[in-house]
Amino acid sequence: MSSSTEVRPAPAPGAAVAEPRRRGRGARRQGSDRAPFRRYHLIIYLLLGAVAFSTAGAFAWVFNVSMKTNTEFIGTRPWSVAEGWRWENYTDAWNSANVGSFFGNSVIVSVTATALGVVLAAFAAYPLARIPFRGSGLVLSVFLLGLMVPWMVTFIPLYVTMQDLGLLDSRLGLALVYATYNLPFNVFVLVGFMRTLPGELEEAAAVDGAGPTRTFLRIILPLMGPGVASVSIISFLQNWNEFFYALVLIHSPERMTLPLGLFQLGQAADYGTNWVTLFAGMMITVVPVLLVFALLQNQVTKGLTAGALKG
After folding, report:
1. Lowest-confidence range among 19-23, 32-36, 175-179?
2. Quick check: 235 and 117 in contact, CB under 8 A?
3. What pTM was computed for the model?
4. Buried-most residue among 47, 93, 163, 296 (CB within 10 A)?
5. Which CATH number belongs to the domain containing residue 184 in this structure?
6. Is residue 149 part of a domain?
7. Count of the separate structural domains present in the chain
8. Residue 84 domain flag
9. How far apart are CA 44 and CA 131, in angstroms?
């Protein structure tokens, strides 16, 4: 009776033993762990490159125009290179065109509104995220409704309210409006961030005799660095670039912010010839914002994705 088992000869001494061939999905992945390059990847990269190139080109064009004279700007082609580096255009914009005053007003209003909005949002988000009580979901929904209300519905009653309170045409009134405008988004982000923190923190603080206020100030708040940084940066950028509420609520030139001041310079340029001052003011407005976002963009990403990554 013959056996069906195949008998293989023993390998000779010193001979290399061939490793059996690996089969299955793991064998196909040998050699490289990188995903294969697809054709649609090239399309995506080309589109993103086109957007980046057009954005950089726009900034380069504004900077180039800000270095020209008014005669050179009007008498040459739009993309012609400036004949010289006329940094005095920025000095004229800062002093003669009151861009320095507009810049100071924007700093005061934006910093005040950002600080007030973040502090109020942190105190509102803590009980919603860490202290269970009946109706917490309803309260959070009321905050989120503020993100859904369009601005054109609120500016008339807001104008009347600010006029009755005596805060019309004032930097304090504009800062209060900006802080209220940023509050729903700040609460939404901070609630999601606080929910990622372990619940044992409050238990350990309660054992040591700490109340909710002390627990929040001594334990929770120091751990909220990325979340607070993200909402602070986003709120500051929104307040710095906001135009419509400043147009409605501010009337005096000495209290105008940068977006409103540049709008006035644009109107003056339409009926005059001082265009290079307007473009110099644009560069003064944009460069600080780009520097802030470029240096702190990692904090924005960490704060916004913390709540989404909770498992």
Report:
1. 19-23
2. yes
3. 0.77
4. 93
5. 1.10.3720.10
6. yes
7. 1
8. no
9. 45
